Automatic annotation (TrEMBL):
Glutathione binds at residue 80. The active site is at residues 47, 178. This is Glutathione S-transferase C-terminal domain-containing protein. The record marks 236, 279 as: Lowers pKa of active site Cys.
Length: 347
């Protein structure tokens, strides 16, 4: 398997995505109509950007109207692949590589083949891979298909502040760990390192007296931060050299992360084996041997966090989602806190 290269003198993420949207009306030039069963969400559990979409889809209860294809944790320089499925072919799209859906719509597509991506089932064409907008649209445009008790993940009254918080979380934390890990010069690495931990210190302070980023309930902002925190000690601290502190050594963020992990929709979508396999096996210009570490011990995610003392209601006036569908459950061997029902069971 030929691997790509990731290290750059000063890493800059390519943020040119397919900006089509799936909307309630589908009326715009680059808008597609919301329709149950028409689309398939393609993800990889290893990827933090895809993990966002998995969590939001589950919290909103969209499993029956938006099916999900799951790629394996590793990929070559060409494409994510469906190597977890029988015959290494997605059972709905009938393709072995996600790239096939991109090329079906754009025969000369030359950018990265990224997850998450939404594919139209009937045509096999990719619709969008614009992951920040994708999850906001799942909240807003797909509301007619939300489960009863689905939380409001993007409350209108909080959007201005939320957008500012999410932008800082994205640039300084979500993407900040990659700027550390993919930095090809000492100066670029040290600048990224300083920015990352300055942001984590800001989050420690912000979350000291509020249970969630926007206050008393979970929002999209928490989803976006969680997927980086879930990977921090397992990958970013060592593999990406983000090693001033482990997450487990930042008391407020560590308690906050466990609070979310122990909430349905978060820990039960976290696959530690896939996460470690992806980063350590794919990034061979950082980890040439491809050896995957055995640790850290994931069972610590089930320890008490004490965040209930801050009050709040994770789902507001809503309710937690039920167990994930049997075919979408994380392998309990990959997450020691998962039971046969696919939910987190505390130690």
């Amino acid at each position: 398997m030929a691997q790509g290269t990731y290290v750059e003198d000063d890493f800059q993420r390519d943020t040119t995505y397919i900006e089509d949207r799936i909307t309630e009306s589908g009326a715009g030039d680059r808008e597609w109509p919301v329709e149950a069963g028409r689309y398939r969400l393609v993800v990889a559990r290893a990827c933090p950007w895809a993990n966002r979409a998995i969590i939001v889809r589950r919290l909103l209860g969209l499993e029956d109207v938006l099916s999900m294809g799951i790629c394996g944790p590793t990929h070559d320089e060409d494409s994510w692949t469906f190597d977890l499925d029988e015959g290494e072919v997605d059972p709905v799209l009938r393709i072995p590589r996600l790239k096939d859906a991109y090329l079906e719509r754009f025969p000369d597509y030359s950018r990265g083949i990224t997850v998450p991506a939404v594919v139209e089932v009937a045509t096999g064409k990719v619709v969008t891979n614009d992951f920040p907008q994708m999850t906001l649209d799942l909240s807003g445009e797909w509301s007619a298909h939300h489960r009863e008790g689905a939380p409001d993940l993007y409350p209108e009254a909080l959007r201005d502040e939320m957008d500012e918080v999410m932008q800082r979380v994205y640039t300084e934390v979500n993407n900040g760990v990659y700027r550390c890990g993919f930095a090809g010069t000492q100066s670029a690495y040290e600048d990224a390192y300083d920015r990352l931990f300055a942001a984590l210190d800001w989050l420690e302070e912000r979350l000291a007296d509020r249970r969630f980023l926007m206050g008393e309930t979970i929002t999209e902002a928490d989803v976006r931060l969680f997927t980086t925190l879930a990977r921090f000690d397992a990958v970013y601290h060592g593999h990406f050299k983000a090693n001033r502190s482990k997450l487990a050594e930042m008391p407020v963020l560590w308690a906050y992360a466990r609070d979310l992990f122990q909430t349905p929709g978060f820990g039960d979508t976290t696959d530690f084996a896939h996460i470690k396999s992806h980063y350590y096996e794919v990034h061979r210009d950082i980890n040439p041997t491809g050896v995957v570490p055995k640790g850290p011990d994931a069972s610590v995610w089930g320890t008490p966090h004490g965040r209930e003392a801050l009050g709040g209601r994770p789902f507001g006036d809503g309710t937690p989602p039920g167990p994930p569908p049997a075919g979408e459950r994380v392998d309990p061997l990959h997450n020691p806190l998962l039971g046969s029902d696919g939910l987190v069971h505390l130690t």
